[in-house]
Amino acid sequence: MEAKTPFIKMENIKKTFGKVVANNNINLSIYGGEVHALLGENGAGKSTLMNMLSGVYTPDSGSIYIKGKKVEFKSPTDAIHSGIGMIYQHFKLVDNMSGEENIILGQKNGIFVSKKSIRNKINEICKKYDISTDLTKKVEDMSVGEKQIVEILKVLYRGANILVLDEPTTVFTVVEVEKLFNIINKMKENGCAVIFISHKMEEVMSICDKITVLRKGEVITTINKEEASPKMLAELMVGEEVELSINKEKVRIGKEVLSIKNLSLYNEDKIEILKNISFNIHRGEVVGIAGIAGSGQRELCEAIAGITPVKQGEITVDSESIIGKTPREIINKGVSMSFVPEDRLGMGLVASMDMVDNLLLKSYHHQKGLLINKKDMIEKANQIKEELDIKTPDIYHPIKNLSGGNIQKILLGRELDVNPNLLIMAYPVRGLDINTCYTIYNLINDQKKKGVGVLYIGEDLDVLIQLCDRILVMCNGEVKGELMSFEATKEKIGLLMGGSRIEREEIKVV
């Protein structure tokens, strides 16, 4: 029997950036009709490898074969013509255009091709892959899941039968994940090859057939799903035994550190985005917030941090009212608060700066005189690098060239260095490898033991239940309910996230 030809074969691929070896002697085969996971810690070389497959980078050495034919991609267009569709974590869509317009954007359809024939082709693709969505909606009005579907249809419309999905479910609800997995299974049935990059072990074990693990730019192994377990995969990624459990610390609850009463927030169009929110946090307590993306979590964090002005309601930190205060004014009042925002390189850190200068941003205004003394910051940068095991050539290396996990550790290190009484964290483990995630969970528990009050906004419901003492659930700008962690289940949280109220005596409904 003749051996099956792989859709993708990468042989002895090597790619370096200066002295950094991103990929070294990579060998990888992906077959049609299979979903193949690519796992590895942040900085393991996954993105570099896929960027070579999609024509963004050119290998320094080695060969790429598509369905047995050797190819040399000079641009992403060459990869598209070979049937490769790359679907990035950050969507590349035009917000003020409809889904349908985005799908055909840039296509050479010819002047005599009617809208009807284009629509028929899209409908055929939707039917083939069991896709159902309203493509007449503008992208700006779509949910994250709907935008992902438009991205998939865009590459399928261009003839792709090899799809690369990079962290496709980062901000998805449970229902959106199920819809995506149904589409992936239909692709598999229709003979497509799917590369699935994710840090979510349960999703990898659910949807994938084979798993390739990268570590430090090299392939460690390729195994069938049946041979694997989440713990084994984590250890292969890290190179040593790892503990995948959150040990919730029992801490005596202290005095109130944050109080929010009747908080409402309006956008520039005077639409209410936060509706009469009230809750509090005590020292030594981790309070989680669950909710579908866009339910007001980001706006709540930014209101507490003083980034977004508040005109209605009360926010008190350490008995100090901070309503109407800017972040600088809050610091000058002596309020002990740190904020780890959702946007690490937009709001949190300056990408072109190194560790030292990013640490300096938090404290330079305290220095006297015209010249800034960096000596203390250099010492702190070295200390944070060592304590959090930050992988960087040195503390003067621009942080934009580091992996997501290392960037997040720098941001966390800076915010924890001020010894806050209140720590606000918005999606602190989004897109991070499993080992870095548990490092951050341990840091949160360490802060809890020190008596810090923590507001933790996350997507993983299992983690919220294991890590937090209480969980508030938001929907459309409202707090729909509050659960103690010992009574919380994914099902209860999911109902509240969808806007339902749970009529049970043991659940505190707000």
TrEMBL record:
Which parts form a coiled-coil structure per UniProt?
A: none
Statement: the UniProt record of this protein carries the keyword ATP-binding? yes
List the Gene Ontology MF annotations in alphabetical order: ATP binding
> What sequence ranges are listed for the domain ABC transporter?
8-241, 258-501
Which InterPro entries did the record assign?
AAA+_ATPase, ABC_carbohydrate_import_ATPase, ABC_transporter-like_ATP-bd, ABC_transporter-like_CS
The domain of life for this entry's organism is Bacteria
Q: What is this protein called?
A: ABC transporter ATP-binding protein
Q: Which organism is it from?
A: Clostridium mobile
Q: What is the lineage of its organism?
A: Bacteria, Bacillati, Bacillota, Clostridia, Eubacteriales
